[in-house]
């Protein structure tokens, strides 16, 4: 191989390795685990401080808002009947209310409260079948 081709091959190799490094580090920094409440409970304190997403249903009577503040505290539960206290500071979605499915993204603090950086609500699907109402005869 002549000198020109060798320089081109080395330069191309460096560029490819740099791009691969940037992709791998970018993906690892932005990846978050999606866990159920049961999985979160199984992991215990080992998960504290790690970025995760959790889906649950807002527990009735658990929403507490501070007037004049963007802070809201509530609890979520799932089919496993486990509950998770959540603290969120930010603009609350319009559909946020008791009984609705939400996805929270953030981390569990050492005190066991989920510190949510993102709060998403699930919209009811317009494609779901309507519930049948029994007719009296």
What does the secondary structure layout of this molecule look like, with pairings?
Layout: H1 3-30, E1 33-35, H2 37-43, E2 52-58, E3 64-65, E4 71-77, E5 83-89, E6 101-108, E7 114-121
Parallel strand pairs: 1-2, 5-7
Antiparallel strand pairs: 2-4, 2-6, 3-4, 4-5, 6-7
Write up what this structure looks like.
By secondary structure, the protein is an alpha+beta fold. The protein folds into two domains: 1-31; 32-121, OB fold (Dihydrolipoamide Acetyltransferase, E2P) (Beta Barrel), CATH 2.40.50. The chain is 26% helix and 31% strand. A five-stranded mixed beta barrel has the order 2-4-5-7-6. The mean pLDDT is 83.
Q: Which regions contain 5 or more consecutive residues with pLDDT less than 50?
A: none
CATH architecture of the largest domain: Beta Barrel
Based on helices, strands and strand pairing, what is the structural class? Answer: alpha+beta
- Number of separate structural domains: 2
C-alpha Rg (nearest Å): 23 Å
Distance between the first and last residues' Cα: 92 Å
CATH class of the largest domain: Mainly Beta
- CATH fold annotation of the largest domain: OB fold (Dihydrolipoamide Acetyltransferase, E2P)
User: Beta-strand level of the residues, as a percent range?
Assistant: 25-35%
Q: What is the overall silhouette?
A: elongated
How many H/I helices? 2
Q: Percent of residues in helical segments?
A: 25-40%
CATH superfamily of the largest domain: Nucleic acid-binding proteins
Give the H and E element order: HEHEEEEEE
Please tell me the overall pLDDT. Answer: 83
- Numbering strands along the chain, what is their spatial order in the largest sheet? 2-4-5-7-6
Quaternary class: single chain
Number of strands: 7
Largest sheet: 5 strands, mixed, barrel
């Amino acid at each position: 191989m002549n000198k020109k081709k060798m320089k081109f091959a080395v330069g191309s190799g460096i560029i490819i390795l740099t791009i691969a490094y940037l992709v791998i580090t970018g993906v690892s920094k932005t990846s978050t685990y999606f866990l159920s409440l049961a999985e979160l409970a199984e992991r215990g304190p080992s998960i504290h401080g790690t970025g995760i997403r959790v889906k649950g249903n807002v527990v009735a009577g658990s929403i507490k808002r501070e007037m004049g503040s963007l802070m809201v505290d509530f609890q979520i539960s799932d089919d496993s009947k486990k509950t998770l206290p959540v603290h969120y500071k930010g603009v609350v979605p319009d559909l946020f209310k008791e009984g609705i499915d939400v996805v929270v993204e953030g981390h569990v603090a050492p005190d066991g409260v989920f510190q949510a950086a993102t709060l998403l609500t699930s919209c009811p699907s317009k494609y779901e079948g309507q519930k049948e109402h029994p007719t009296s005869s």
